[in-house]
Amino acid sequence: MIRRPFPPSVPRARLGLLVAAGIAGCVAVAGAVAPGVAETAAVAPSALADRLEPRTWALAIPLSWLAAPLTGLREGDVLDLIGTRTSERASATEVAAGLRVMSIDDRALVVELTGADASAIAAARARGLSFVPLLRSSR
Predict the structure, then answer these.
(1) Which of 32, 34, 108, 115 is deepest in the core (most CB within 10 A)?
(2) Residue-wise pLDDT tens digits, 67-121
(3) Is the separation of the CB atoms in 103 and 31 below 8 Å?
(4) CA 78, 82, 84: angle at the middle one, nearest 5?
(5) In the chain, helix, strand, coil percent, each to 5?
(6) What is the pTM of this model?
(7) Is the dihedral of CA 59, 51, 10, 80 positive or negative?
(8) What is the layout of strands, in order, in the sheet containing 130-135?
């Protein structure tokens, strides 16, 4: 696993929220190829860190944080996250927008996001919100 430090754009006060929300590492890398080993596109996937755009990070969002599952989600899809709270005073608010799906499995959804989006997600979780993912149209 490779860890990148939190981006300088994330204020130190928000770092406490990231840790409190259980977001300690930013990037997990799988599928790295040893130096000097020939790489075939169909066989060896590129490392997650290599697929990230400049000035972005990867964040694993546990599926248990989602209030509603999204079936058929694929790598490359773009999501927005709405934070919801169910109670006598139910609420919903936009948390993050334009998150690109990097991978998904039965435990977590890995998205590419900015430092501001990571802070917003951590703050929403610290306030006890669940997330409703909204899939953007590809057209």
Answers:
(1) 115
(2) 988 888 999 999 999 999 887 788 889 999 999 999 999 999 999 999 999 999 9
(3) no
(4) 150
(5) 20, 30, 50
(6) 0.66
(7) negative
(8) 57-62, 108-113, 91-104, 78-85, 130-135
